[in-house]
Amino acid sequence: MKPATTTCHHRIIALTFLLAIALVQAQVAFAQTRNITVQVNQPAGAIPKTLFGLFFEDINFGADGGLYPERVKNRSFEFPNPMMGWKQLDRGDSKGQLYVFDHGSVNETPNSHYLRIKSDGKAFGVSNEGFRGIGVQKDAEYKFSMRARRVDSPPVTLHIEIEDGNHVVGETQVVVLTNAWKTYEATLRARDNISKGHLNLIVQGNGTVDIDLISLYPGDTWQNRPNGLRSDLVKLLKEMKPGFLRFPGGCIVEGRYLDQRYQWKTTIGDLDERKLIINRWNTEFNWRLTPDYYQSFGLGYYEYFQLAEDIGAEPLPIINCGMACQFNSGELAPLEDLDHYIQDAIDLIEFANAPVNTAWGRKRSEMGHPKPFNLKMIGVGNEQWGPQYVERYEVFAKVLKQKYPNISLVTSAGPAPEGERFTFLWQKMRELKADLIDEHYYMAPLWFRENSGRYDNYPRNGPKVFAGEYAAQSVGIASPDNRNNWECALSEAAFITGLERNSDVVNMSSYAPLFGHVDAWQWTPNLIWFDNLRSYGTPNYYVQKMFSVNKGTQRLPILLDGSAKNGQNELYTSAAMDEVTREVIVKIINTGSEAKETRITLSGAQRVAQSGKAFVLQSEDLKAENSLDQPTRIAPVEKQLQLADGKFSYSVLPRSFTVLRVPLR
Ligand code: AHR
Predict the structure, then answer these.
(1) Which atom of ligand 1 is found nearest the CA of 382?
(2) By the 8 A CB rule, do 325 and 260 touch?
(3) What is the pTM of this model?
């Protein structure tokens, strides 16, 4: 047995030891609590309404096969191979011939081709493969339409069906009565879901018929418009509350050659007045060839303006400035020959803004929109560089600025966020007093984390910045292995706090590209992915959306442990006041793998409500992604925030993006 004094002595030592540990732990915890101070009583300036917007380009089947929900590919036989997407269909012992004609159609220019089906048997016709298949939804209605005429034969009956190789899910019959071109329409209701089906047109018995402008169009379009857009995709866009919509690109504006550039006038009017051209992404990447990629322009300039209006975004069209893509031919329109290009820009502004008693205003009105679209800005060229760009921009700017002093011009800073081309263009554009300079950064996630302070020291006078195309590349620019993973999204979030803090200089920003068809893409990563029936927002989408819907109206200074430097200790922050809802909005990104304890002080806030809200986007797994089957694996979670007064503690989850909304009373 031990003496009592020894036991007591041991106890004292053990207690002292435990106390010491507790003290160290308390000190560590105290040291790890970061102080975030939002200077609510020192608003630093208005946040531009356009700070967060959208970049749309017809890449990855973003228009035809995507936002533009026409199911029939090559519907007018105008692809260079007029039968691309179509194949002959014989049923049983039937016989027949197919002929493509290049004149005699309803509209000779630009839609001259049509198909003749001559059936000598029981059931002979054609099948269309759609855009990587035809998708239809159970119980939904689809409008079939075509131009047709019978040829030297009695009325011809066409059997129309949608099938996927296993079963027919919708069918109807159309009787072509006359030998003059006429539009025939029918409605099909799908009995089942299929995402990779075909549309078949089969002549019953003997007969010859000419067909053109074949269409299978969903009844459910955005706002139920005929020729309307795919509603699930527009919904995803609208929910972001975007400040602007840039269209139609991107390199597509430039074309590989000048004759393949985007020309807005050929994209408006009746569908068969719109001139199909190749999509420049068709053969851009050897490892992702899409030889069936063309632009039908069913989604054209009128629809872009309408889309911008529908989702509450300012339209921002980008026009060709007489330069083809410098990554391809780099073809140039001679300087003394730019009139045609400039006239296109002028006419575009007129089409958007002029009253209905003018030629272009009337055209807009005839298409269904008498009210002007109120265009306020236009991009001169896309991602151009070099002195040849500056020379052309100057010619454009001289004319446009004189005629439309209130229209802002967006100019290029080239394809990279630094380097010789970038520095040259910034210097020149500064001298020329450009309005908005479009910077592009397709960089590694680390670059985004390291560059949250990029704009802290940009000059406060002179041109404003449009961060017009950016996305973190998990592998490298244009790599087909890039992923829309959480590391990329979280790094972008860290970077965007820097855009918010500097929104007196950065007036606009947009992630790029916007859309990717899971079976038909050329470029990755993209903000939103879809197949023929479904769609989902990536973690990057939710980052963009959380910033945009929580933008606020006034910038507020924010300090971490008394310092304004962003990105210390793996914490990135920004703050704003929403003067409409009277809420203080705090954004905190923790890129570290440990939670961070914070003490948040809203300095100068008179009184705060007893509760607020937290929206948290988080995953511990940096490789995590969303998918068609798990569309919201990473999506914001809403939580209640208990508030005693203008000071409160908040534990920031590891690898998370949090938005706090604190109502003032
Ligand atoms: O977003 C994809 C492409 O990247 C754009 O078309 C172009 O502007 C940039 O190089």
Answers:
(1) 8
(2) no
(3) 0.95
